[in-house]
Write the C-alpha cells for this entry.
Amino acid sequence: MIEKDDFLKKAFRRYYYENINKICAPQRLPEREIGYLTFYPEKMIRHVTLKNEGELKALLVHEAPKSVYYSTAYYDDPSAPINSRLWKGADLVFDIDLDHMPFKENHMTFIYICNSCNSFFADLNNKRCSLCGSEKITTANIPTKEGLEYGKDEIIRLIDILTEDFGIGKDKIKIYFSGKRGYHLTVENSLYEDVDQNFRLELSDYLTLNGFKLLNTILNRNVPINDLHQIFPLPHEKGWMGRLSKSFFEDIIGIKLENWDETYLRSLLQKYFSTITYKDLQLSLEKVIDKIKIRIDTNVTTDIHRIFRMPETLHGETGLLKKRITNIDTFHPLVDAIAFSQEPIKVYVDYAPRFELNEQIFGPYKKEEVILPEMAAVFLICMGLAKPLEFP
Amino acid sequence: MQILGEEDLIKYPFLEETRQYIAKLGLTLDDFTLNEFEKVIRRCELRLMSSKYPPELYTLDKDTDLLSFMLAVIIIKASQREDVIARFAFNEASRAEYFLKTERNKSILTYILRRLLNINIYEVDYAICNEYYEYAIHVKDYVKLSSSLKSLHWKIVNKIVSNGLVYLRRQELIRLARDKIFQEIFKRIKDAPTPIVPQKLQYLVDIVRNRPLPKRLHESSVLTEDPPCVKQILDKIKSGKNLSHYERFFITTFLLKKGKSTEEIVSLFSSSPDFNEKIAKYQVEHIAGLRGGRKRYNVPDCKTLFSQGLCYKDDSCNNISHPLNYKLKKGDKTLDRKRRFSKESI
C-alpha cells in the first residue's frame, strides 16, 4: 500500500514543478505573513516571510505544501510575533461558502464517516453510526455543479453592493473559486485598506443584514396601509432600500421590472396593498430580506490578522486550484480549477458518491479498486475517500 | 470662507478661536481674583457645580461665557477629578448641541459641523419613506464617529449608504457632532498639564474636589450571574452540542477572566462530541497567552458578539456594552441613571 500523504505530496510537488510559471505572487508579498500546511507531519508553519516571487516558487516546489496561505494584512515585519509587528492595513476579504447557504439537496453530496469503525454512509440516522453505534462521526461533502452555480449569484450580488454602496472600483476587486466549496472576493488597494475591525464588523453586518431595522421605517404605522404606496421605496432608491424594493416587485408582486415609471409603480403598489394586511406585508418583506442578504462568512471578513488561501495554489482537501475568475458567467469551477491530468491511476475507493469533474461523471463506488484519471484520483484521495494503489 | 463671529465662539467655546481670542486679552489667572471678574466667577461656578446646565448657560453672555469656560477648564484640571471632566464635557457638548439644533442659517450650520467634525460633509437633498436627508459623510468617517453609539439605529445596515457615503438627517449629524465635542473636550482637559491655581481661587478647586463621587460600577456588585450570551453557550455544552470556533473563543476568554483555570475550561469542553483534548488544551492555552504569540486575548464586547450572531440580549442586560459588565443593574438606580446619561436620544 502506498502512503496517502506520500502520494499526494509527490503529486503536488510535480504539479508545482511543471506549472511554476503560472504562479504569480500576491501583491506586496514581503509585507505579508505566509503560512503553509505540510503533508507529514501535518503541521501548520506560520510567520514566514518571503522576499519575492522566486522565494515563493522555491517554497512551493521544495515543500510541496498541502495548503498555502497569505495574510490579508500588511505588516512591517510579518515574521515577528503578532504583538510586536506593526499592522499597516489589510485587504477586504469575503468568503462565500456553500456551507453558509440555505441547504438545498442538489447543492452538495454528504458523506458521513464513522471515526470508530471507519465506515462510510450516505445517510446518518440518529447521529450514530449504524454499524457500531458510535457518535464520533465526521462529515465530508462534495459540492455539485448546481451548488457552485448557485454560489456565483451571491458573488455577483456582493460585487454590486461593494461597487454601488461603498464606491469600490471594479478594478480593485478580484474574485476566485476557493478550490473547494465556494468563492473568495478580495479588494486590494482601496481606501478601505486601513479600516479597523470595528468597520469590518459593521460592513459584515451591512452585507448580511444583521440588525436590519429599516423595515420599521418602511412599515410606518402612522401611515394606513392604503396610503403606504405613496412612501414605499422604489427600485431606483439608494442602498438596500432600492434592492429590497426591486425584489419586492419581482418576487412578491411578481412583475418583471421593465417600466420604472414612478406613477406606474406606485399604482401597482396601491393595487397590491389593497388586498393585504400589514402583517402580510411584514411577512413578505421578511422573506425578501432573507432572499437578498449576502451570506458571507463573518469570521473571514472581520479578522484583521487572517491568513487566507493563496491564489493559484492547490487546495489540500480537493486537489483543485484556488482559481482567479475573470468572467464569472463562463467560469466552470469543476473544469477551470482542475490541476491534475487525465493519466489513469489505480486506486482503492472506500466510498464515493456520484460526482462530476471536467464534465465527466464518476461513481458511485464502494470498497472497490478503480482506475481513475489522476484528477479524480487525487480528488478522492484528498477527501479521504480513496487510497492510492500506484504512483502515476 | 465662513468667518466665525463672536456669537459663534460663545456658542462653541471649545473652538481653537476661543484660545486665540482670550490670548489677545492678555489675562493671567491672578486677574480673575479682581472684582471686575465677579460675573465670570459666578458663571464659572455654574459650569463647575451643575450636574445639568441651568437655562442661564443656554443664553449668550459674551466675554463672561468665554472666560468662564476657560476658567472652568483650568479649575477642573487642577481638581484632577476625571468624573467631573466627563460631566463637564458632556454638559458642554449638550449645550453646543442645543445651539446647533436651533441654528437657522444652514450654511453656518454646515460650516460649524465641518469645523467640529473635521471631515468632509456634503449637503444633499434626498428623501425616502417620509424621511429627509440633508447631509452625507463618508462611510469610514461615519463608522468612526458612531462607534460609541450603542443603538442599532446607528449601524450602517440601518442607514442609506450609497457610493461610499452615508446619508444623514440633520439631527443625526448634530448628534454625532455632540459625541465628537464630548470626546474632544474630555481628551483636551485630560491631556493638559495640571495648572497652578492662585490661592484666592483655590476654593473653586475645592468645590470640584468635594463634589460627591459617583457610585463606581464594579464596587457594589460582583459578577454572580452569567449574561444570556454566556448562559446560551454553557447550555449548549451541557446538552452535548458542538460549539462553533467563535463560541469556544468567547467562552474561553470569558471564563479565564472570571478566574477559571485552563484545566477547568478544557474539562468543560470534554463533553463536546468533537472534543480532542490535545487541540482544546492548545487553543485554551493560546487564548490565555501561555503559548504562541503570548498574547492574552480580551473578552469580545457586545457589538462583536452581535455581529457573530452570539448576542442573546434581554432586559436583564440593561444596555451594557460588554458582557463583563453584566449584573450591575437591577434595582441600582444610580447606575441606571449613569447609563441613561451616556445613551443617545434622537
Notes: The two ends of chain B are 31 Å apart (CA to CA). Strands of chain B lie at 121-128, 131-138, 160-162, 165-168. Chain B touches chain A at residues 126, 128-131, 139-140, 143-144, 147, 152-153, 155-165, 167, 245-246, 273, 293-295, 303-304, 306-309 (CB under 8 Å).
